[in-house]
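Marked as duplicate of an earlier ticket. Keeping the data here for the record.
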Amino acid sequence: MSIQAIMNKLNWEEISYHYYQRYGLHKDLVSLFKLEDIANFSELLVAINNEHANYSASDHSLGPQILKENIHSRKRLYNISEKFIQLQSPHTVPKLIREAGLKYFQIGVGSEASCMLNPSVCWVTNTKTVWAHLLFKYAGNVSLANEALKLYRNSDENSDMAYNKWRAIHQEMGESSNELIECSKKNSNMDIENMNYLWADAISNALYELNQ
């Protein structure tokens, strides 16, 4: 099945709702950051009080672990977020995450945090967006995308191996994310200024859920 045929099967009203819900949380995060409300900001960033703020964290209950098992976790989350907000290129996101050294704050949670803070620059690299990327890579072949995704679900490898693998796929995500945005123009009336990487993430989530 072609990519466009798959896109035609999506519920674009639901995708738009998903996007605006997340974009509202983006604005909340930026507001809390500017207020230097470190406690509430850090909790929202890792989806403690709202699962929609970071699915990579909430889907795996990582938020409480990030806050509890890292010294000065809230301040460190605030500090890396400052760097995310200032980014003009998403390619350094994995390096910033690695340098932060926060347990459980890996590329999935971290890249999603970067996108929630800076959606015009940073994209999300998690299981759902990687699957959408692989779907484009294999020209709409769902079986091949499913098989390739298994590589990113290997729990037996060490942390360095996992980091290098996710860092590599993160660098590839921009092209497919932009293709996703471009393809969506045939299906959605979304204003072009809103077609950022949170919009690509909303479509990726819908694609993933459609094929589960």
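See parent ticket for discussion. The chain has a mean pLDDT of 93.
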